[in-house]
Structure formats: structure tokens, C-alpha cells
Specification:
By secondary structure, this protein is of the alpha+beta class. Helices cover 43% and strands 12% of the residues.
Length: 186
């Protein structure tokens, strides 16, 4: 029995020594990947005019052209409508600032409310906001209002993208996710 204990002890010590040696191994650096550097290509010399090569034509010299500027995106009608609605909502006394995204007949309204607005008073303010939105833009039939700071930021990012000229369809998934968060029971 004692002999078996001694063998097990020696084996354990051996395993510990081997593991400590493997763990203390110095890290080997991997060689840096070779960089691709393209070799410059030289244009083929044009044949001299004295001896024309059959089947070869020299291209006519062209005048340098100015680079075409990137197209400037114009704000869409939705972004202009949203700006009017946001300004209308921001005039409500309980609201610090507002951001709006309009998609068809639906408006997503993110508001930063003043600190004193809470509970049932918040619901009353949201009803005021909904009324202000519908009064400002008669074509809006559905209004989703949120005072959640995270959703406010997301709506603001979408509004900025749309005002930069990006299509509303690009944000369709985000808009539907925000609507689901505002009205989870629907």
C-alpha cells in the first residue's frame, strides 16, 4: 500500500513538473505575413511614326476631366414633415426636446420630458403630444410616443439618417422594433 502511494506521489510530482515547464515556455513570435507590393507596370512604348505596326492604333489624347462630385442628397418630404411635427411637439411646456420619424401615415415620436413629469401626468402629456402631432400633420393616423432615453436616441439616429437622404425603407426593421417596444401588447 505504501509502495503504491509512493508511485502515485512520484507520478503527480512528475506531471506537475512537466506542466509547469510547458506553461513557462517562452512565446514564439509568428512571422509577419508577407506584404503584397504591386510592381509598377510600365506602359508599352508607342511605336514610332516612321514604322507603323499593323493593327495598332494610337489612342487620341484626351483632355483631363474634373472628377464628378458625389450627389448631394436632398431632404425628403418625410424629413421636412417630421421637422415641423418635432418643432410643434417641442413647444409643449412639459417637453424639453423632441425627435420625430414619419413613415407613411405613422409617426414615431421620441421626447425628452422635463424632470417633474411622472406617472399619470406623463400619460396626459403623451396624449397632448399625440394631439399636437395629428393637428400639425393631418395625414398622420397613428402616433407612437416614447419618453425612454434609449428609444429617443434610436429615433433621433433614424431621423438624422433620413434627413441625410437615406430612404425610410432602410430603417424599416428598426422602426418596427421600436414600435414593438413602445406597444409590447400589440
Amino acid at each position: 500500500m505504501k509502495k503504491i502511494k509512493n508511485i502515485i506521489t512520484v507520478l503527480l510530482i512528475g506531471v506537475m513538473i512537466l506542466t509547469s515547464m510547458a506553461g513557462c515556455k517562452t512565446a514564439t513570435k509568428k512571422p509577419a505575413p508577407a506584404r503584397y507590393t504591386p510592381t509598377p507596370t510600365r506602359p508599352a512604348p508607342a511605336p514610332s511614326k516612321a514604322t507603323p505596326t499593323p493593327g495598332y492604333t494610337t489612342p487620341a489624347p484626351t483632355a483631363p476631366t474634373a472628377p464628378t462630385p458625389a450627389p448631394v442628397r436632398k431632404p425628403t418630404t418625410e424629413s421636412m414633415r417630421a421637422s415641423r411635427v418635432a418643432a410643434s411637439v417641442a413647444r409643449i411646456p412639459e417637453v424639453n426636446k423632441a425627435t420625430v420619424v414619419i413613415s407613411g401615415t405613422t409617426a414615431l415620436v421620441g421626447v425628452d420630458m422635463k424632470a417633474k413629469v411622472q406617472g399619470t401626468h406623463e400619460k396626459d402629456v403623451k396624449k397632448k403630444i399625440e394631439k399636437a402631432v395629428k393637428d400639425t400633420d393631418k395625414s398622420i393616423t397613428r402616433v407612437y410616443v416614447t419618453a425612454d432615453p434609449d428609444l429617443y436616441k434610436r429615433i433621433d439616429n433614424i431621423a438624422r439618417g433620413i434627413s441625410e437622404g437615406r430612404p425610410v425603407s432602410e430603417f424599416a426593421k428598426q422602426i418596427s422594433e421600436i414600435i414593438k417596444r413602445i406597444t409590447p401588447g400589440m
